[in-house]
Design brief:
By secondary structure, the protein is α+β, with helices and mostly antiparallel strands. It has nine helices and 16 strands. The strands form four sheets. Strands 7, 8, 9, 10, 11, 13 and 14 form a seven-stranded antiparallel β-sheet that branches. A hairpin with a 2-residue loop joins strand 15 and strand 16. The two termini are 27 Å apart. Keywords: ATP-binding, Ligase, Nucleotide-binding. This is Tubulin polyglutamylase TTLL11. One of its GO terms (biological process) is microtubule cytoskeleton organization.
């Protein structure tokens, strides 16, 4: 590790947070300029909605979203209109702070009037989305999928999707949202960093049991129930490609301002974490995209109050080691010389 940079050039620079960690004039950097900004909840929603306006049928994998506070009147008006046209429609909405991560500040509401219009929403913008009420359940639990996607280059656009990912489970059996259970985060929110604090969280030594499993183990179960796993994969691949296409125009602007064409400079690649929810009918829905997905392969275990140790996590190791290894193979600068 070179916390203060290094004088001699490297083949690959592996940065912690963003492209601007250091001045780099050659080699390959594992971050794209502008990516962190582009996948924030509001920017991502805007980019996908632009495409939804142009290609509504192609971009139906992202829940209806509104940006707060600026679209609050629009949100209130649209919900009222939809309720008037269909009185049986009883929606739930999920409010997510723009810069939040690890489930921080997320809450569910039944009516636009329930939005917490305290100082925080003014100073801390958010996205409100229609909550997906009919998720696919495994062992009566709601779960999401973290898939790892390598964006290898923007021009030409080159995308690789890891064959396996993580399935992260809620820790309380799922029930459709009601006013009584809206606040039960362990039932509704799949965030690992929330559920790990639940008394029901199961750290497992096996990749197909516990509160975090491999996605391939879920696919095996679905396949044994007769589900069309091939179609599911092709829908997921399509969702990933279309999402990246929605982000590409602005990413190119960032790229060209930092690395002007014709000038010597580094090239970029980046591992993204796609969070996807499967509906009961196996339709994948995009929840969000993470520019810095965690690559930790151990978890903290509390031995006694306040005393923690790091314990290896076989599930994380199986998935993440493969992601890093294959990424390095794909961007290997020596490959051409061999």
């Amino acid at each position: 590790q070179f916390p203060f940079g290094r004088r001699l050039p490297c083949d690959i620079y592996w940065h912690g947070v963003s492209f601007h960690d250091n001045d780099i004039f050659s080699g390959q950097v594992n971050k794209f300029p502008g990516m962190t900004e582009m996948v924030r909840k509001i920017t991502l929603s805007r980019a996908v909605r632009t495409m939804q306006d142009l290609f509504p049928l192609e971009y139906d994998f992202y829940p209806r979203s509104w940006i707060l506070p600026e679209e609050l009147p629009l949100f209130v008006a649209e919900v009222r209109m939809m309720k008037d046209s269909d009185p049986s429609w009883k929606p739930t909405f999920i409010v997510k702070p723009d810069g939040g991560c690890q489930g921080d500040g997320i809450y569910l509401i039944k009516d636009p009037s329930d939005i917490r219009l305290t100082g925080s929403i003014q100073s801390r913008p958010a996205v409100v989305q229609e909550y997906i009420c009919k998720p696919l359940l495994v062992d009566k639990l709601k779960f999401d999928i973290r898939l790892y996607v390598l964006l290898k280059s923007l021009e030409p656009l080159e995308i690789y999707i890891a064959k396996d990912g993580l399935s992260r489970f809620c820790t309380e059996p799922y029930q459709e949202p009601t006013l009584k259970n809206l606040h039960q985060v362990f039932m509704h929110l799949t965030n690992y960093s929330l559920n790990i604090h639940s008394g029901n969280f199961i750290h497992s030594d096996s990749v197909n049991t516990g509160s975090k499993r491999t996605f391939s183990s879920i696919l095996c179960r679905l396949s044994s129930r007769g589900a069309d796993v091939k179609k599911l994969w092709s829908d997921i691949i399509s969702l990933v490609i279309k999402t990246i296409i929605a982000l590409t125009p602005e990413l190119k602007v960032y790229y060209q301002s930092d690395i002007p064409a014709g000038k010597p400079g580094p090239t970029c690649f980046q591992i993204l974490g796609f969070d996807i929810l499967l509906m009961k009918n196996l339709k994948p829905m995009l929840l969000e995209v993470n520019a810095n997905p965690s690559m930790r392969i151990e978890h903290e275990q509390e031995l006694s109050p306040g005393v923690f140790e790091n314990v290896p996590s076989p599930v994380d190791e199986e998935v993440k080691v493969a992601v890093i290894r294959d990424t390095l193979r794909l961007v290997d600068p020596q490959k051409k010389k061999r």
